[in-house]
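step 4 of 6: structure.
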Amino acid sequence: MKLLSILIAAIFAHNIALRYFLGWCPLVSQSKKLSSAWGMGVAVTLVMTVTSVLNWPIYHYLLVPFGLEYLQYIAFIIVIASSVQVLEMAIERFFPSLYTTMGVFLPLITVNCAILGVSLFMILRDYTFLTGLVYALGSGIGWTVAIISLASIREKLRFAKVPKPLQGPGITMLIAGIMAFAFLGFSGMVGIE
Amino acid sequence: MNWLKESLNDLSDFTAGRPYLGYATEVVDTIEAIIFAPTERSQERPFLRDFIDVKRYMALVVIGIVPATLASIYFYGWRALAMILVSYVAGGIAEVGFTLARKEEITEGFLVTGILFPLILPPTTPLWIVAVGIIVGVILGKEVFGGTGYNIFNPALVGRVFLTVTFPVAMSSNWVEPLTGGWAGLTKYGIDTVTSATPLGQFANEGTLVGLKEVFLGTIPGSLGESSALLLIIGGLFLIVTKIADWRIPLSYLGSVMAFSYLGTFLWPNQVAPPVFQLLAGGLLFGALFMATDPVTAPTTKGAKWVYGLFLGVMTVSIRAFSGYPEGVMFSILLINMFSPLMDDMVMTHRYGPVQKPYK
C-alpha cells in the first residue's frame, strides 16, 4: 500500500516536471513531436530507475560507512554519466532512427536535473531500496506523462496562429505552466515521505 | 432595427474608404457582425448548409446559461450582475486590444468566456480580482494560442485556477449563504452576512451532508452560478437539444462520477461523499454541462469523448475525496483538457492505424 501510494504520488501529486520543475530542458526541446517525446520519456524513465538502483547501494554501503556523504554528488553524476553512455550505445545499435531524432539530447540526459534530483530526493527522504526504486519509476512515468501530453498539444498547435515572439520555447513554457496549475489540484492528495 | 442597420452600414462605408481611421473599421465590422447575420454570401462551392456559425454557437451557449445567471442575481443581489459586467468590460478590453494589435478579426468566442468566468467565482470576490482573473484567462488561456478556436485549455478555468493560486484566501473562504424568500437579492446590492462553508467543504471538514433538496434548488453557499442544480440542468438540456453540447461528454462525465463515488463509498466511506450528493453539489453540473463540453478544448472524436468523460469523473471524485481542495471540477477539467489532443490521436491511430502526419 505504501509502495502504491508512493508510485501514485510520484506520478501525479509530486510530478517531478510539473511540481518540482526539474528536467525542463528536454521537456521543452524534445516535445516537438510525439514520437521523439515517447523516446525521450522512455529513455529518462529507464535512466532514472537504473541510476537510483545503482545509487542507493553506493550511498548506503560505500559512502555512509566511510563517512563520505559529501561525495554523493560526484558519485551520483559518475553513475548517471556511465549509464547514459551505455544507454546511448544501446539506442544507437537497436533504434538508429530514434538515435538521430534525439541527437545531442540523449547524452544530455547526463546533466538532466530530474535524474540527479530523483537520486538526491531518494537519499533526502530516507527511502528504503524498494521505495526508492518505486519512486524513481513513478517519477519517470510522471515525467513521460508530462512530455507526451505536451508533445500532443504542440502537434495540435502546429496549426494555431501563435504570436511570433512566443513561437517555440515561449508557448511551450506557457503550456507547461498551465499544466503545472492543473497539477496543483493533486496537492495534499498522497504523502511522498 | 432598420435604422440601426442603415446607420451601421453608413458607418462601415465611411470607415472602409478611410485607411487612416485604422482599427475603427474592424470594430465597426465586429459590432455589425454581432448584431446582424453576415451579409456576404458565398458565390461558389462549398456552400454552407447551416447558419450555425461561431456567433450563433456562442449566442446559444449564452442563452443556455441565462437561467443560472438570473438565479445568481436572485440569490446574491445585483453585485452578481456587477461582477459579470466587470468581467465583460475588462476581458473585452484585453481581447479587443490583443486582436487589434495582431491585426486579426475580433471573434465572438469571448462572449461565452466573459459570462462563464464570473459565474464560477465566489459571490464576494472583489471586483478588481474579477478583472485580473478574466484578463489572465483571456490572454494566457486563449490569445497566446492564437485566439478563439486554437486554445488548448478552457480560458475561464485558466483564469479561475490562476486566482485560486494567487489569492487563495479570497477564493476559498468567502462563501456566503444565499438570500431566499420573497424578492431575496433583487432588492439588494450585495450580501454582508457571515461567511459559511459550501456543502462539499462541510463534508470535507466536518463530514456532514446537506439535504439533497437544498442542493437541488440551490439554497446553499457556492459559486455565483453553480448553486442551483435545477436551473443548470434546464440550461444544459437546452444546449444538448440544440446540439451545441455533445451529449456524450456530460453523460460519461456524470456517469463516471456516480459510478466511482458509489464504489468509493464502500472503500473510503469517510472521504468519498455519496453519489447523488456528489452529482448535485459543487460545480459538477456547471462544469459537465458548460465547461467540459466546450468544443474547442474537448476531444473531437466520439471515442475520445467517452474516455474524456470517464477520466474527468475519476479525477473529480479523487480530488474531492483525497486532495487538499474540497472541490475538484475545475482542476480536473483543466487537467484532462491537456490530454484531449493525445486522446484524439490515440483514437485515430486505433481506428485508422498509424497516421502519416502531413508535416515533419
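step 5 of 6: annotate
 - DSSP finds 17 helices and no strands in chain B.
 - The interface with chain A takes residues 102, 104, 140-141, 144-147, 150, 152-153, 158, 161-162, 165, 315, 318-319, 322-325, 328, 330-332, 334-335, 337-339, 341-342, 345, 357, 359 of chain B (CB under 8 Å).
step 6 of 6: archive
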